[in-house]
Amino acid sequence: MKRLYFTLCALSMLASPLFANPSSKPNILFIVADDLGYGEPGCYGGKDIPTPNLDGLAAGGARFTSGYVTAPFCAASRAALMTGRYQTRFGFEFNPIGAKNAAPGIGLPVEEKTIADRLRDSGYATGLLGKWHLGGTAPFHPQRRGFDEFFGFLHEGHYFVPPPWDGVTTWLRRKTLPDGGKGRWTSTDDRIVWSTHLGTNEHEYDTDNPLLRSSQPVDEKANLTDAFTREACDFIGRHKGQPWFLYLSYNAVHSPMQGADAYMAKFAHIEDIHRRIFAAMLAHLDDSVGKVLTQLGESGIEDNTLVVFLSDNGGPTKELTSSNVPLRGGKGELWEGGIRVPFIVSWKGQIPAMVIDTPVTSLDATTTALELGESEPNKAKLDGINLFPLLTGETSGFPGRPLFWRVGKKNALRQDDWKLIRDGRDWQLYDLAHDISETTDLAAKEPARVQQMSALWDQWNAEQVEPLWK
Q1: 372 and 225 in one domain?
Q2: What pLDDT, on the 0 to 100 scale, is given for residue 400?
Q3: Which of 11, 404, 426, 452 to pair with 24, CA 20 to 30 A apart?
């Protein structure tokens, strides 16, 4: 593993007692973006869409350049984040979308304790705002999975504003344009754009998928990015006198693509309307994160709040333009672009500014939060490692461990700087330290390494279970 590099400023700060373990339970805020590519935030090299609030969060804390999720798509990745365990340990291997997410028995198995279950049992108030996508039937409802409060939707996506989609420009996938042709079509009022470039129709996101407060449908008029931000600020303000865990699960920048008017005007200089709508959505998300962080400060609790920001998977570039540069591939794939994501951890007064290249995973975020928040640590096996001693300078070492992925015949393993990957064929091998874009397969030159790593993957795979659905 590469060692962690601190700035000289951070090194001098680490000698201060300020960075001792906190004596009281911190508030814990998980902010999850949907389908945000590695290369989009400014702090990760993005150039054309300013993200000052994400950049500021990163500048005041730890920015991971090798931060991973456990799956290249939404639900399976979130199942791991919610439990701190590889989702393949309990059969949540594939992505249930549409009606499948509402089928009986499909969801995060009820035997698995969530981070919300465990923190609530430790005295926390718990809330989920936004996207769930871990089961759409009664046994899997968030308030049966440890959350005191829920405002959001149960399935994989949702339109940001209700029909007739006032105040936004909407981009929709279609198989055929009104004239029977292919390409793009724009409505006479320039409010709706159809595109056939993916050869599919837009998913029926809102079908049997109402916006809910608890289990009651809500007639929400605000853009959902604004609505979830409003609710987050309210939750923080109401619970500032007690420890809380908030899972703020935005559906931005996931499709359907809808750019709000003010943000569309801000990016009028972007000629490609597809990219302009994405820019509007990302800037809207960034401003919303800024409002939530401001609420922490105004509530006087930012110095007792652990903030974790990450994307649930890599960007689907063809669908959204969401870029994963310089990584190969994107959403749905086990190339780096599908599983390496923007990943930031911040805590004012506890975590100094640093950039970390050591590989970490979303499982570590969950484990860290539980180590900090549980009064009596649960003995259930977690697959993550507590990052807090590393983040606060209590240790400069980090236990070396491989990271694993399995999605059917798509398999991968990262060990130190080496990446092993296959898709139903022979293993390929890449040296990520010198080939982050995975362009040169070294399997033929390193057969012993392939054998050693593949044996390690086989050993891990033997511990996993069969998928509960496909």
Answers
A1: yes
A2: 80
A3: 11
Structure tokens at 417: 């700087």
Inside any domain, residue 167 = no
Q: Which of 262, 317, 318, 344 is nearest to 67 (CA)?
A: 344
Asked if residue 74 and residue 45 are part of one domain, the reply reads yes
Residue-wise pLDDT tens digits, 327-379? 999 999 999 999 999 999 999 999 999 999 999 999 999 999 999 998 776 76
- State both tokens at 196: 């056939």
pTM value is 0.94
Instruction: Please tell me the predicted confidence (pLDDT) of residue 86.
Output: 98
Domain boundary among 391, 417, 449: 391
Domain that holds residue 59: 24-161+206-391
Can you tell me the distance from the alpha carbon of 133 to that of 412, in angstroms, rounded to the nearest whole number?
Answer: 24
Catalytic annotation present for 155: no
Beta bridge partners of 431: 418
CA gap 455, 450 in Å, rounded: 8
Evaluate whether 171 touches 274 at the Cβ level (below 8 Å): yes
Is position 233 annotated as part of the catalytic site?
Answer: no
CA–CA dist 371, 388 (Å, integer):
9
pLDDT, tens digit, 9 for 90 and up, residues 60-88: 999 999 999 999 999 999 999 999 999 99
**Number of domains the chain is built from:** 2
**Which residue of the set 43, 133, 141, 254 is catalytic?**
133
Which entry of 43, 74, 141, 158 is annotated as an active-site residue?
74
Phi/psi of residue 192, nearest 5 degrees: -130, 130
